User: Fold this.
Amino acid sequence: PRGFSAAGVPRKGARGWKAPWTPEPLVPGRGPRRQRPWPSGERSGRAAMAAAPALKHWRTTLERVEKFVSPLYFTDCNLRGSPLGGGSRESASPPAGWPRGGKGAASSARPPAPPAQALRGQLPGGRAFQLPDSREASLPGGGPAGLPPRAGRRQLRTHVGNAQRGAGPRAKGEFPSGLAPLLQGPHLQWWTCWFRVELTIPEAWVGQEVHLRWESDGEGLVWRDGEPVQGLTKEGEKTSYILTDRLGEGDPRSLTLYVEVACNGLLGAGKGTMIAAPDPEKMFQVSRAELAVFHRDVHKLLVDLELLLGVAKGLGEDNQRSFQALYTANQIVNMCDPAQPETFPVAQALASKFFGQCGGESQHTIHAMGHCHIDTAWLWPFKETVRKCARSWVTAVQLMEQNPEFIFVCSQAQQLEWVKSLYPGLHARLQEFACRGQFVPVGGTWVEMDGNLPSGEAMVRQFLQGQNFFRQEFGKMCSEFWLPDTFGYSAQLPQIMRSCGIRHFLTQKLSWNLVNSFPHHTFFWEGLDGSRVLAHFPPGDSYGMQGSVEEVLKTVAKNRDKGRTNHSAFLFGFGDGGGGPTQSMVDRLKRLRNTDGLPRVSRTAPQGWETQAVVSLRVQLSSPGRLFSALESDSGQLCTWVGELFLELHNGTYTTHAQIKKGNRECERILHDVELLSSLALARSAHFLYPAAQLQDLWRLLLLNQFHDVVTGSCIQLVAEEAMCHYEDIRSHGNTLLSAAATALCAGEPGPEGLLIVNTLPWKRTEVLALPRPGGAHSLALVTVPSIGYAPAPAPTSLQPVLPQQPVFVVQETDGSVTLDNGIIRVRLDPTGCLTSLVLVASGREAIAEGAVGNQFVLFDDVPLYWDAWDVMDYHLETRKPVLGQAGTLAVGTEGGMRGSAWFLLQISANSRLSQEVVLDVGCPYVRFHTEVAGGRVVHWHEAHKFLKVEFPARVRSPQATYEVQFGHLQRPTHYNTSWDWARFEVWAHRWMDLSEHGFGLALLNDSKYGASVRGSVLSLSLLRAPKAPDATADMGRHEFTYALMPHEGEYRVPTPLPSEPRFPTVSGENCGSPLPPTPIFHNASLCGPRPGSFQDAGVIRAAYSLNFPLLVLPAPGPAPAAAWSAFSVSSPAVVLETVKQARGGARRGRDPGLGPPAAPPTARLPPQAETSPQGRTLVLRLYEAHGGHVDCWLHTSLPVQEAVLCDLLERRDPAGHLPLQDARLKLTFSPFQVRSLLLVLQPPPD
Assistant:
């Protein structure tokens, strides 16, 4: 055949034709058959026929052209299937042991060949490649199974073996000399099989472009001379490797390649549907392995005809340019004889004339950029992503070599770091093309993280790690934040971006909105603090375009900022599972580079587009820099969007995989505490080595887990298990580093041996702690610890239970209800554990709505339309069922004094139940609900498509509720007035949400949850889901979490102290750097006594921090300090000192630890002790304004500070940011929700 599809029959819905692969006919003893000259009479006759009037029906002509390029119809005479002349031809000899296909006989007489022998592979639980019994397995040079071998194709000799667990891509020279056949492979997950391919190119093919064609259900990677050279992905239209673009007379014709084939496709290995859990019985086939001659002229003609058809169909019958395109295509069919290559140049000239019609200055410019979105983990594990990166990027390298104008953009520093570690040759090529301007790193972050759930500090670290990696490896940092596929975007992102050197933002995910269409494609995005970035959403609503005319027209037609800007992005290339651009995509876009007269839409255009004015367009192979420069020049009339970019879909990701959510919150806290204590130890000890390298490793593990399909829980079971292992690594190593820092911090202090109580928050705290006693018992003690400091724990002999002046009272009534009262709030629970009353004692104000109960567990049916782990739909609210099954009566736990508690069991269903302890401490303004979800001996939470929430109907009326976000908070409606309101039926929050009216409110705090909502006056916290795809085990098992309820009327101030002789050992005070004498105990000194005000004044933000950052009780090896000590304090309650860490310059440079071999899960590599530069005595402090107002405050410190200077989030000094130090204080000014960072240079340590 003259040309045929690279994948045989194209898959349904595939866009674009495949490359034209054709065999070269071989005649024994001769080279390729010479073509018959075109007689002058025939040529003149064709010319006359082409000049005849085009008395054609539009539909008929259109279909005629379609059939001329069809891979299905009339392939005996069309451009894709027409033979090159007549006569006999010969196929290459198949290897011994395979039936011959009629060697030396005419093609018409060739007997049918047997079907191609398929290699079959299995997935987890029974993976195996099944091969013939011989050591050398050969693949016939045929098409798909059941089709005879094609004439002239060369059959290849292959050797097959498996990659053992832990084996990675082999370096140059490390390939084995022999690969044993694998008759029954071990049960390995996500493994790969290696094929050694020995080939010889026929001498008759000299002067031709020769390709290796390989089609397999699993993704593949071709290796040549020890280096990866081409990715192979059938779904990604990459089924060939160019052996030579022109075989020379003296070129070697025999070579050996290796092909690594994975047991997964482009989008994993789901059972039945894409997002289904991986199928352990799924089989994979290798259906083609052959040599073929590639005819570039046929390929070009196919691209031209495809685009002309696209123009004709896209513009419809009412448009002049549509007919011009159609008649040009019709002329090409008339002029082009598939059997006569001499006719191709004339046909190509006709197409060039059409596409060469230039437009005017008013053209809409489409900036086309090669793109390959690769999910760092999703429907495949982390180690498979490493291989996906290699397959995709080595293919991009080939395209950049062949097309100097082609530009490829690439995000996610983590993926580039993996390639650097495991494919160093490929990484060097990427650096080379980066210098040429063809490979453009974008994004500036470590991974494309979720935009909702990570903390503010974690988002900063994404940019800190990412931008520094890009600078070190590619010579510059990114100026655009590239996050095309995450599930919403925090309102604090603009400020974080601007302080990390980023002024531009690109995504397309809001095109997925289920209810409302976002009103802009190019606009300014303004964050909580007023920071603005230039944002652009590609109007084509995709990051995986194919370069078709339909997509180009859609990009122009759907632009919602017509008249404001004349530029838009067009990201082309297969994505999600990798793949990236193809040569056909590049060729299409080159052809459309400057095409005049294409309208945005027409009345008969597809997809119901509305009619618009005719405007020409042009396509540029461009870069992000050129795009945003052009958008900035048109920015004078752009609109501004203020606040979060809320995705009206995937609301279930705030709750799915509760264990991952808890691990994320806990590890964020651990790394915060380790950095803070290590910084204090560095400041106070001349011998302490700050663990910079270990902390970088641990942070990178956490940032890896914050990828938008991991922390959200929308991943397969294997990824979730790997994520939990990462969290366990962070916990284990983090606690080790925490103990080391505590040891160094109190070294040399006088005092008895004992325990150290550490406060890592920037305000004094008075709380009840359970302290260990001899014999393993614990006693409750009320302790006060200064801000960011420590205090010695009371001696065990003094831990005698003494009743406080205002203790907690616990009373159980005869009806089984229990009342807890600490003098600040009074809590009443009915026998089932529901909250019937919550009263502020001082004012008598009731917080629970009349006739309702709080702490009501509610179960919903949770069946989305498709995206199981991702979506919870609004109709789930119609299935509300209160959980009323009681498994045990309410019982008193702790009987009062320092703490009072009651507990109960609740049967959720036949398979699931929970136990809960309701706890109230002395002096605490909130009641805690410590919850364990468990079942019998076998199962725990074991549901299917159910959604568990807890509700608190409040005696509060407000149209807005407040939710904590990164470095601040925002308000969302509690009503459903508009579609924009009711689309927010399920939202996200971090540590707290609050519903307040004037003078009173109710706050709901939590330690590990993110899904939330307030409808009317009902506060609802989302607890557990039970989706079944892509992880059938998501959320199954045991869960433990705590939430708390805090009524408030305003600020709590200290009314009067307790008697001057406290009856409990305690320390308190804010005297930074000096010993703190014992002082009277106050009832939670910062939170006692009501005064009218807001939730900010009431201390809700501080209470939520305290719930999430418990006081640390650490052993003091050797003498413990005799007095309390504080390192930092802030004069304003509106300002939070969020982070204290060593400046990045103090860490050992050049160390970028990798993931490890791709066959092993990524883990942190922790050396026994990190090296630290002697000059690394510079700390970074990060503070933010939390109340939403302008604030002047003082930062107090007891550390030996030599210099203080403001810096950005990348820790670069502000040249005008020097801060004078006055009496160990720094004056700082904040605007609402502003984040400020400063560098503190410490004095040299004493000898």
The chain has a mean pLDDT of 82. The radius of gyration is 34 Å. The longest strand covers residues 284-294.
